[in-house]
Amino acid sequence: MRARENPSRGRRPTDSEAKEAYLAMRERIETSDARHATERAELRGLSAELAGWLAERRLLDPSGERLSPPERALRHVVSEHRRRLRETAEGLARDARALDDVLSLLPAPRPGARETVETEFFTDRERTRRRLEELDALSREEFLAMRNTFPGARVLDASLVRDLEMAAAGIRMRLLTSQQALRSPAPARYLHALIEAGVEVRVAATVPLHMNIMDRAVVVIGVGAGPRGEGGDVILHSGPVAQCFARVFLHAWDLARPHAERRAGPGATGPGCAGPECAGTGPAGPEPAGPGSAGPELSALEREVLALLATGAKDETIARRLDCSDRTLRRLMRRIMGKLGTSSRFEAGVTAVRLGLVD
Hints:
Layout: H1 15-30, H2 35-44, H3 48-56, H4 70-105, E1 118-122, H5 125-138, E2 142-147, H6 153-168, E3 172-178, H7 185-196, E4 200-204, E5 211-214, E6 218-223, E7 232-237, H8 239-255, E8 257-258, E9 262-264, E10 267-269, H9 300-310, H10 315-322, H11 326-340, H12 345-354
Parallel strand pairs: 2-3, 3-4
Antiparallel strand pairs: 1-7, 2-5, 4-8, 5-6, 6-7, 9-10
C-alpha cells in the first residue's frame, strides 16, 4: 500500500486521505485472485486512526476484519438513525407526560393574585437624577411627564440636552404642568426649546403629581416632604401599575389646555422640564388675566377657528374642517390674532378661552 494511501500513525487522516485509502484498498481487494487473503492483509496494515475513521462511517465491519461497500454502510447509518429517532421520540413523549402531570399538580392561578413590583426609593436627589438618566436612555416610544414644580436654570439647561435627544429619537413626549409652575423665566426658555422640538405641552389649573411614565412600563413619582421633612422619589417597575398612572395622566391631559407662550418682561412664562431633574420651585409671578375681560367682536367662522385652536388642532386639520386652502386659513388666522392682540396661534386659542369667546 502506498504511503499516501495509509496516513502516518498517530495522526488522524483528513477526509480526502481516508477516502483515497479506502478506494485504493477496495480496488486491490476486488482485482485480487485471493480476495479474502488480500483483504486481511490490507486491514492488518491499517493505522488505528484510519481504522477509526472508517468505522465511524460504517465502512469497516465492527469486527475490523471486513471492509463494507458504501451501499451497506449507508443502510447501517440509516438504520441506526432510525433507531435513535425512535428512542428520542419515545423519550420526548415520556417527558411531555411527566410535564403534564407536574403542571396538573400546580394550583390554578387566582384572578387578582398579587404581583411583585420592583421598587426603588431614593432620598438623594442627585442619585435619583443619575438613575433616571439611565432609565430615560431605555425609553423607546413614549414619555409622559407631570410637573407641579420646577428646578433652577442650571438643572433645566442640563435636562434640556437629554430631553431634546429623546425628542430627536422619535419618542412621543407629553408634558402636563400646572399654572402655578409657569411663573419663572427659566422654564419659559426651556419650554420654548421643547415645543420647537415637537414636544406636546399642556397647562392645567392644578397637577396632582410630580411624575414620569416611560413606555407605560416604569413610573417615577416624587414623594412630597413628610411631617419631619423626609421625602424622596419612588420608581415602580410594573406594566399594570404604569398603565393605571397613565390613565390618571391622560384624564388630566384631556382637561388641560395647550400651552401658549407669551412675553412678560425678559422671559416668556411657561412650564418646565420634561426630564427627570425637574424638582424645585420658581419665583412667583403675576396671575394671568381671568375670564370676563372684554373681547373683540368675532365672526362665527373666526370663533370656529379659535375653538379648534384651543383644542390644539394643527393647521392642516383646521383647514380640512373648514374646507379651505392653507393660504386662506393663514390669512384668517392673521386677522384673528390682530383682533386679539396676540403673536402666536396657540396664544390666540388660549386668549379666546380666557375671554369667554369660545365654549
